[in-house]
Amino acid sequence: MLLRAYRQGWVLAVLASLLAVPAVRGQGEKQPAQPGMLPTGEALMDEYIKKTGGKAAYEKVKTTLMKGTMTMGGLGLNGDIVLQLKAPNLKHFTLDLKGLGKVEGGSDGKVSWENSVLQGPKIHDPTKDDDSMLGLDLGSDANWRKEYKSAKTEGEEKYKGKDVYRVKLETKKGEPEFRYFDKATGFVLRMKKPIKSALGTLMTDVDVGDYKKVGDLQVPHTATIEMAGQKVELRFTTVEMNVDIPDSAFVLPEAVKELLKKKEQPKDSDK
């Protein structure tokens, strides 16, 4: 069962959604609500940036190191996660799954890849593959107005005993996403978004919490992710920013380099 879940892309899809919420950044001034009206989606997005540290603080982040644990209770799967990120587009993650082995992946800025003891090396085609690298970059939402067509407040509701605003965002591809903002703090408590996997596109529900100060930023240290009837719990015990991470940490592994050479070799029919 564990092996099937891994091959279906479940594990990598979950990893993809780890950091989709914590580092929302953007541009623009807050647009206050008129008396008797709900605050606009744009205002809530911008206010979240402000409440979690502000645009200037986000722009100072050049590297990020995160360490934590993952538990997938329904499948009896758990392991340790290490994420290394370096501006503008260097990424590396290690997921040590007990009973399955190690999964690594990342990007050297040009090639997105993954490698595991179970399936070997793989190079991702951004036009065809799943979202296995989505969200690993803390700056992936750096300018949300470039990523989304709109942000509209749909209403107010209760979520786990807290008053929240529900905001619907529409991506440039026309896909809907939802964010739930705590009225009291302005922080994101929940997100719903479609994630691609080998099973197809699945709507993923992510709860985040335990916001803690890291440098000048407020960063959530826990996440509960629900997708395809399964629940994953994530807890980051270490979050560090602007630490020294050498470029060598993002060099392609030899197995990935060999696979890349094979892909670049001309086929007989092309000769």
Question: Would you spell out the secondary-structure blueprint of this structure?
Answer:
Blueprint: H1 2-7, H2 10-16, H3 41-51, H4 55-59, E1 63-72, E2 77-86, E3 90-97, E4 101-107, E5 112-116, E6 120-123, H5 144-147, E7 148-159, E8 162-171, E9 176-182, E10 188-197, E11 200-214, E12 217-227, E13 230-241, H6 254-264
Antiparallel strand pairs: 1-2, 1-13, 2-3, 3-4, 4-5, 5-6, 7-8, 8-9, 9-10, 10-11, 11-12, 12-13
Q: Total domains, how many?
A: 1
| Name of the CATH homologous superfamily | Lipoprotein localisation LolA/LolB/LppX
Q: Terminal Cα separation, in Å?
A: 44 Å
Mean pLDDT: 79
| CATH architectural designation | Clam
List unreliable stretches of 5+ residues. Answer: 1-10, 16-35, 129-140
Based on DSSP secondary structure assignment, what is the total number of beta strands? 13
Oligomer: single chain
Structural class: alpha+beta
Q: How much is the radius of gyration in Å?
A: 19 Å
What is the CATH domain class? Mainly Beta
Q: Compute the number of helices.
A: 6
Sheet with the most strands, sense and barrel status: 13 strands, antiparallel
CATH topology category name: outer membrane lipoprotein receptor (LolB), chain A
Strand order of the largest sheet: 6-5-4-3-2-1-13-12-11-10-9-8-7
